[in-house]
Amino acid sequence: MIEKNPTVVTKQYRVENFRNLINIRTSILILLSLLVFSCSKNPESYIEHIEGYWEIQVATLADGSKKEYKFNETIDYLSVNDSLKGFRKKLKPGINDTYFTSGDAENIELKIDGNKLIILYATPYAKWSETVLNADKKELRIMNDDEDIYLYKRYESIKLDLQD
């Protein structure tokens, strides 16, 4: 009968456990990487959702403070053409799809920079940009240069049946 040296058996056990631990760790890192890359969106997919009427819901400032907007007197209308240029206007909504505006507008241009969709704004007085963090049918989330984040929801106009 051959007896095994307990020290050798313990060392072999430790080596096997260490190899298993490395394999598990590697598997977890691969899964996390796949998850991160599969969840990241292509900024080009945001473009089709930018145009429309948007009502601000929440502003989260860079310091973490939040401002919720319960009622908005104005909404933003963004219009973008095929060349990714357009304008943003502030509108006061009326009833049954009517809107009131001063006629002033900010020129905008959409630009993809790496993996980000940027909105470039221009008026006769200033130029600035914002980064689109998310845009879909229901919400628009943008971040300005000060890292303040604005969450907009798609505006739904007030419809009244005015027939007697």
Give structural attributes.
2 domains, 2 helices, 8-stranded antiparallel barrel, 164 residues, Lipocalin, alpha+beta, elongated
Describe this structure in words.
The chain is elongated, with a radius of gyration of 27 Å. 25% of the residues lie in helices and 40% in strands. An eight-stranded antiparallel barrel has the order 1-3-4-6-7-8-9-10. The mean pLDDT is 85. It is built from two helices and ten strands. The protein folds into two domains: 40 residues; 111 residues, Lipocalin (Beta Barrel). It has 164 residues and is an alpha+beta fold.
**Spatial arrangement of strands, main beta sheet:** 1-3-4-6-7-8-9-10
Order of helices and strands: HHEEEEEEEEEE
Distance between the termini: 105 Å
Whole-number count of domains: 2
**What is the overall shape?**
elongated
Q: How many individual β-strands? A: 10
Low-confidence stretches: none
| CATH topology tier name of the largest domain | Lipocalin
Mean pLDDT: 85
Helix-strand makeup class: alpha+beta
Q: What is the name of the CATH architecture of the largest domain?
A: Beta Barrel
Helix content: 25-40%
- What value does the Rg take, in angstroms? 27 Å
Provide a brief overview of the structure.
The chain is 25% helix and 40% strand. With 164 residues, it is of the alpha+beta class.
What secondary-structure arrangement, pairings included, does this model have?
Blueprint: H1 6-39, H2 44-50, E1 52-60, E2 66-68, E3 75-80, E4 85-93, E5 99-100, E6 106-113, E7 116-122, E8 127-135, E9 139-144, E10 149-154
Antiparallel strand pairs: 1-2, 1-3, 1-10, 3-4, 4-5, 4-6, 6-7, 7-8, 8-9, 9-10
